[in-house]
Amino acid sequence: MAAGAKESLRVTKAQSAALLEEAESKAKEITREARKEAKEKTRKVEETLALAVDYAAEIRMMADKRAEAIADKAYESLRLHDHYADTVQAYKNTVDGYLGTYAVPASHLLDELADEFGFHKAGERLKLARQRTRIMEESGEAADCNYPPGWKRDYAINFVLSAFNGKVDSILSRVKPSNQGKQIQEIKDVFSLVNHNGNVFKGARIHGEFLESRLDEYKWAVAIQRLKDKQREEQRAIREQVREEEKARKELERALKQARRDEELLSRALEQARLEFEHATIEEKGVYEARLNELSAKLADAEEKNRRAVSMAQQTKCGHVYIISNPGSFGGDVFKIGLTRRLEPMDRVRELGNASVPFGFDVHAMIYSEDAPALEASLHRKFLPMQVNKVNRRKEFFRVGIHAIKAALDEMGLQARWTLTAEAREYKETLTLENAMRDDPQLRSKWLEEQAALEQSAVLGDEEEDDSIIEEEGEVEALP
């Protein structure tokens, strides 16, 4: 019985130990689960908090963008308002005409520019403005659009540039100082209209800086035009003066011929009266003496008129001294320094470039002088060592640099419009054609056929021109 109780106690202890172990195991499992659940909840709380922070930041960012969009829209609306206002005004100007709205007084900024700058300086400033325009076009600074880089962008930019430049070049070709206000507004209106129409090409537009560059071109073009107008007026006055002097010269020649004829007739009459006086009676001598005194007075008067006519004729020396060259015929540093009293001095230059030389002459300077023979002689003496023909001094060609001739005239205080570089258009075109024919036999054959056709036409309709250059007084001048 005792043994049964012991066994029962052992079993009970074993069961208790098993239950205790199971309870401890379950307690550990419950603790792990609780910790795991707490960690998961903590993670979720942290994620939720992070999401909330991100959401708040997103809301704030969206609010900022919305505020910026509203501000940009307001600014864009303001810009569009100005843009459309300019466009409307441009259309109005184009339809209604410019009338007197943009008139600028004739005496304005350009008068000051014409006084302040010499012709060559105004030309240089225009060249700089043109160069600036070309640089802006070549560097892509003249226009822009919102297309990404590619052919569409290039096409859109070229389109607005061509439209703008075409109209501006048309305005520049008809520059008028008296019309400058209207023409400046025309250029600005073209700018507004082109930029408005460029909206269909993703906002293709001309930059304001490019507009300023073209307006700068216009300003200097007007300045030069003003100087040209002034020069034309001066030339008109010179032609009028030459015309009057030519008229006076002819009248003086007639007066001189009449005075000499009167002097000769009175001299013969006086000589005859003296002979008759010597053979007259005492009663007749009183009559002849009065006649002699009368004829002597008339002769003295005729001699005075003759001297005065000669003196006045000697004062008619005005004319033009010209500096011309012909690189194709004589080389680059050979210049002719001559004079003409023609009312149209270019007639003389064209006459010199007749059939005796293969190319026409280029005019480097045409200087008006009240004593043209003295000016011409002074220049000839200055460059005598450089004369091409050392035997015949009438050949007025000199091997000297154009800058040396200009310096000599500057030292004399003479002002002239200079062209320092010879155009030599036909000569340069001939060189280009010769080089092209050298490389292209077909071009050479075509040219020969054309020349043969022209020669046949000339034989049928024209006679050969005389191989001579007619001098001013009708003499023949042989070239050096």
UniProtKB/TrEMBL annotation:
Residues 461-480 have a biased composition (Acidic residues). Residues 456-480 are annotated as: Disordered. Residues 13-48, 224-312 form a coiled coil. Keywords: Coiled coil. It comes from the Bacteria. The keyword Signal does not apply. Residues 329-412 form the Bacteriophage T5 Orf172 DNA-binding domain. This is Bacteriophage T5 Orf172 DNA-binding domain-containing protein. It comes from Tautonia plasticadhaerens. The lineage of its organism: Bacteria, Pseudomonadati, Planctomycetota, Planctomycetia, Isosphaerales.
